[in-house]
Amino acid sequence: MIRLPITEADLHAYVDGILPAERAAEIEAYLAEHPEDAARVASYCEQTASLHRVFDPMLDEPLPQRLEVPRPLWVRPALRYAAVVAWLALGGVAGWHLHEYRAAGQFEATTWARRAAVAHVTYSPEVRHPVEVGAAEEAHLVRWLSKRLGASVKAPHLGDLGYSLVGGRLLPGDRGPVAQFMYQDGKGQRLTLYLRRDAGKQRETAFRFSRERGVGVFYWIDGGLGYALSGEIDKPELLRVATAVYRQLNP
């Protein structure tokens, strides 16, 4: 039997309780093996519960007296029913838009992390051509990438952590050009730093973590640029490097 891949839409349908029992069981098995996704689903469930806590009590509130208009007795139950339906509709619309807003933000962030991970696994194994411009031309590389991204780009120095700059390259992104710097330690382990020009509407964010098919990614927004550090190393070590990168960019 061929199992369909678990998508973001599946996770939201699971939260909304609209999946068939068999598919819901597959989602539950998937979440048991993917703690990051399980944490996101738990936050969606909490959001739904919060909306119920806010709006459900309104259904029991009496109609304000100023809105009461004498009408035939047979009309009043109908009005009461209509008021309940209206509150339910209002709560549903508010909940849907909030859910859609958070889902869109989460989807965008997940897509960004996935792009960084794909770029990492594409170029980090390369032996002869891992980068377009080598570390020997670092000044030229930084000027070139800054010009193409339309923002001041820096290549952090990670020698104190055991990683030296290999070089960098220009990549296509969903919002325009993207830069990638590559680093390598003495054992040949490589990390990549993925940079993009952010839309400007996003505020600075704390580190977020994602694991995409064995590649860990810490990503954040700072100073109008989005950063994503990717590597096939354990989470604490990747966080240590990401923290060093952030501190160098914010002395």
Main β-sheet description: 7 strands, antiparallel
How many domain units?
A: 2
Uncertain residue ranges: 83-90, 92-108
| Overall pLDDT | 78
Number of helices: 6
CATH topology of the largest domain: Phosphorylase Kinase, domain 1
Q: Give the distance, in angstroms, between the N- and C-terminal Cα atoms.
A: 55 Å
- Mind telling me the C-alpha Rg? 25 Å
Structural class: alpha+beta
Write out the CATH superfamily name of the largest domain: MucB/RseB, C-terminal domain
CATH class of the largest domain: Alpha Beta
**Shape, per Cα inertia axes:** elongated
CATH architecture of the largest domain: 2-Layer Sandwich
User: Can you write the helix and strand succession as a string?
Assistant: HHHHEHEEEEEEH
How are the strands of the largest sheet arranged? 1-2-3-4-7-6-5
Strand coverage percent: 15-25%
- The percent range for helix content is 40-55%
Total strand segments? 7
Summarize this structure briefly.
By secondary structure, this protein is α+β, with helices and mostly antiparallel strands. 47% of the residues lie in helices and 20% in strands. Helix 3 runs antiparallel to helix 4 (76-123).
